[in-house]
Amino acid sequence: MGYLENGNWNDGWYDTAKTGGRFERSTAGFRNWITADGSAGPTGDGGFEAEAGRYHLYVSYACPWAHRTLIFRALKGLGDLITVSAVHPDMLSEGWTFSTDFDGATGDDLFGFDYLREVYTKAAPGVSGRVTVPILWDKKRGTIVSNESSEIIRMFNTAFNGLTGNTDDYYPEALRPRIDEINDRIYKTVNNGVYLAGFATTQAAYDEAIGPLFDSLDWIEGILEQNRYLTGDRITEPTGACSPR
Ligand SMILES: N[C@@H](CCC(=O)N[C@@H](CS)C(=O)NCC(=O)O)C(=O)O
Prior knowledge:
The protein has seven helices and seven strands. It has helices at 64-75, 117-123, 149-158, 161-164, 176-191, 193-198, 203-226; strands at residues 2-5, 8-11, 55-59, 82-86, 129-130, 135-138, 143-146. It starts with a strand and ends in a 19-residue tail after the last helix. The relative contact order is 0.16.
């Protein structure tokens, strides 16, 4: 576990000393957007057109944020259009690595790198920040499109429809307010909530996080007692993957 500072690797755990023992998530640094014709998306300046074979996804099977990009790749029929490399599931002093001595760990299919951090420094040699998965890489421009899973799945939802003919919509207009509301609570109290509780280094910080986490699990359970999925009877972005059924 570590981070890049001006392109150099530092092996260090999350520094919670300045924040009263609280884990604080840094925002993802690469926020470009793929669109059907390369026009600008909700973030970024554009220049990332949907094309078969152009983009590559780096994931860890040990990472739930990465999972959702793999789920969307499958749901949207993008398996033949977007290639994937999976890191080794252990994230230790070198961060994510491309060692292949684990079932499903593919190595780096694009560059043959040893460490995931090299993908970040290839995109931006002086980059600072955490080296996270997932990463969506653009083979044409030789850079990272995005390392923010919530945005990668939104791109996958629509950008490649013209190429695949798959128009299934997991963020339908009519349900957006409800999806946004559910996503917001789940992100803050569950997805990031487990980090807030798990990486807290003071009892107070842990106590702050653990109540909302279990309240939200009960809230989710309540919805799923009534509906098959979190937004009703069909799968949408917040899938209801926690459903016991
Ligand atoms: N905002 C990112 C968060 C991704 C994330 O935190 N990934 C974790 C693995 S589950 C990671 O790579 N952590 C490495 C680190 O923080 O050093 C996203 O949703 O894409």
